[in-house]
Design goal:
The complex is a heterodimer of chains A (about 150) and B (about 400).
Chain A: H1 2-35, E1 36-40, E2 48-49, H2 51-58, E3 64-65, E4 69-70, E5 72-76, H3 79-89, H4 93-105, E6 113-115, H5 118-127, E7 131-136, E8 145-149
Parallel strand pairs in A: 2-8, 5-6, 5-7
Antiparallel strand pairs in A: 1-7, 1-8, 3-4
Helix pairs in contact in A: 1-3
Chain B: H1 2-20, E1 26-28, E2 31-44, E3 60-70, E4 75-86, E5 95-106, E6 109-117, E7 153-164, E8 170-179, H2 187-196, E9 201-206, E10 209-218, E11 224-234, E12 237-245, E13 251-274, E14 277-294, E15 301-304, E16 308-320, E17 325-335, E18 356-366, E19 371-382, E20 398-409
Antiparallel strand pairs in B: 1-2, 2-3, 2-20, 3-4, 4-5, 5-6, 6-7, 7-8, 8-10, 9-12, 10-11, 11-13, 12-13, 13-14, 14-15, 14-16, 16-17, 17-18, 18-19, 19-20
The chains are: A alpha/beta (about 150), B mainly beta (about 400).
Organism (chain B): Desulfonema magnum
Protein name (chain B): Porin
InterPro entries (chain B): Porin_dom_sf (IPR023614)
């Protein structure tokens, strides 16, 4: 009888622990999602994109808005770069750099344009039609529009 | 030699801005320029492997420079010049590695025309670029160093595309068709000659055309992708000379022609990336069936050589511990003739030339975004599929290879 109670208590503790781990994971992923904003030039026809679409854009697989408007994507070389890659591409910065070196050294594409500050990236996105990028949420201003992620 | 020196100097000049300013690409207007240069060292305790490695060799280097631009929103063009040296192969002669125009009509359909890198398995396209992998040497069971020059590029056209599959992940394809290059003094010819006849010297090797089909599926499990490659080389022909022993015991020098009725192969690939861990495995098979025609036989005759199938596979794992340190471990097996895996048809004492089993431990140090140092050691069991011409003395069945390589890329 005592043994059965002990097993029950242990099971309850494990379930609680698992629940707490799950809550932590959700909080972490929410905070990543909240820290990085996807932004675009105001003429970009999309307001909502799926995670898969964002991944395809930043891997150079999806290159058109609709049938004939070119997508240009830009990257930010700050701490948010790692956060963005982890959240949307499941890559590390080293893996992403290698992926683009592969594209460049096999002639399949030019390398993505990179910025060292969010301000410069926003200015570029606001001026160049069809452009998409990401910034830390605190850096947003209304020169560009935000893209919701479904 | 002079051309190589000028090429080396050109690559070096373009590198100077990368030293001075921390940028990845060098841009002049709308043209983007990238390059790389690497110098390696190979040492074996027994047997010469691809070069005179028993004494250690620095004849192991690669360099390349490329130029590319977008002519319109959908049209991209570029070219890369490349030179390498590995023992007697390459000798730093400059070759056009790739040069093509790429028109992306839709995401699911693009066209390429020109000289294109051959899409074969996971890593053939990037084998010239040392900085894109953990190891120095690619697993020889799937990416034979001897076939490298012929399998580097194809002059022709390609269709390719990316197709999203919603919850099923995403799919991509690449279909390439064109002419491959077979030089009589390069690896493919040199490695094929002894497989056709033990005294064969190939003076000319050519094919009508070849085609490669690749299908890649990024599965719904994040980081897991699988790929299938199939290829055929049509009407491959090898011409050369060989020595025959007549019934009277005379040695006859004869010209010989081998016409390949079949020459094809496939690769199955699997790669899983989870955070800093990359696991990969590939299995390759390669077949040929050649019809032999030897002129100097007393009664000239044509005969069908048996179909020969070679098999190889490997598994590898690499892990990046820090921003600057990565390590990898791989195991591979290769059998040049699957019907003689144990070497029963070989001369006594040479059975180990029927297989090659390699365990490799690699380390990679990313000094910064541009500089990489790699140190690697391999334990080799056997000598299958390797050109024995570099080893006039007796071969040893068990041997170690040490490789070091320093690369700069921008």
């Amino acid at each position: 009888m005592k043994k059965r109670i002990k097993i029950r208590q242990m099971t309850r503790r494990i379930v609680t622990l698992l629940f707490l781990v799950l809550v932590c994971l959700i909080c972490i992923s929410v905070s990543y999602a909240a820290d990085v904003l996807i932004i675009a030039n105001k003429d970009v026809p999309a307001d909502v994109l799926s995670k898969n679409e964002i991944r395809s854009i930043f891997l150079g697989e999806k290159t058109m808005w609709g049938k004939n408007r070119k997508i240009t994507f830009v990257i930010l070389k700050t701490a948010e770069h790692e956060m963005f890659l982890r959240e949307y591409l499941g890559n590390t910065a080293a893996q992403y750099l290698n992926y683009w070196k592969k594209m460049v050294f096999t002639g399949k594409s030019k390398s993505p344009k990179a910025f060292r500050t969010a301000e410069k990236l926003i200015n570029y996105v606001s001026e160049k039609t069809g452009t998409i990028g990401y910034i830390p949420s605190g850096a947003y201003n209304d020169k560009v529009k935000t893209i919701s992620v479904k | 030699m002079r051309k190589s020196a000028i090429f080396f100097a050109s690559v070096f000049i373009f590198m100077i801005p990368a030293f001075l300013y921390p940028v990845y690409a060098f841009e002049t207007g709308d043209i983007e320029i990238h390059g790389f240069i690497s110098q390696g060292y190979l040492l074996t305790d027994e047997n010469n492997y691809l070069a005179e490695t028993e004494d250690g060799t620095f004849e192991f280097n690669e360099m390349g420079i490329n130029f590319s631009t977008d002519l319109t929103e959908q049209l991209h063009i570029g070219m890369q010049f490349f030179a390498r040296d590995l023992g007697t192969v390459g000798n730093d002669d400059i070759v056009l590695d790739w040069a093509f125009a790429d028109y992306r009509w839709r995401d699911w359909l693009g066209f390429r025309a020109g000289k294109i890198k051959i899409d074969y398995g996971l890593y053939n396209e990037t084998r010239e670029m040392d900085m894109l992998r953990t190891s120095v040497m690619l697993p020889q069971s799937v990416y034979s160093e001897l076939w490298r020059d012929s399998f580097s590029g194809i002059k022709g056209a390609a269709l390719y595309g990316y197709v999203p599959l919603s919850v099923m992940g995403r799919f991509s394809y690449d279909f390439q068709i064109g002419a491959m290059n077979f030089e009589e003094d390069e690896g493919f010819s040199l490695s094929f000659a002894p497989r056709l006849h033990e005294s064969m010297y190939i003076g000319n090797m050519d094919a009508d055309y070849a085609w490669f089909a690749d299908f890649q599926w990024h599965t719904p499990l994040p980081g897991l992708k699988t790929k299938f490659t199939y290829y055929e080389i049509e009407n491959l022909k090898a011409e050369g000379e060989l020595f025959l022993l007549s019934q009277e015991g005379e040695i006859l020098n004869s010209s010989a022609t081998y016409e390949f009725e079949e020459k094809d192969g496939y690769v199955l690939s699997l790669e899983y990336v989870w955070k800093n861990l990359v696991l990969s495995a590939e299995y390759a098979e390669d077949d040929y069936l050649a019809r032999m025609n030897i002129e100097e036989l007393i009664q000239p005759e044509e005969s069908n050589s048996p179909k020969v199938t070679s098999k190889g596979w490997y598994v590898s794992a690499s892990y990046r511990f820090t921003d600057w340190f990565e390590t990898g471990l791989s195991y591979s097996e290769y059998y040049p003739d699957e019907d003689d895996k144990d070497g029963d048809r070989k001369k006594p004492g040479e059975e180990f030339t029927s297989w090659l089993k390699v365990t490799t431990l690699s380390t990679r140090f990313d000094i910064n975004e541009y500089w990489i140092l790699k140190l690697e050691t391999s334990y080799n069991d056997g000598f299958g599929g390797i050109n024995v011409a570099d080893n006039p003395d007796e071969l040893e069945p068990y041997w170690f290879l040490f490789a070091a390589k320093m690369t700069f890329s921008f």
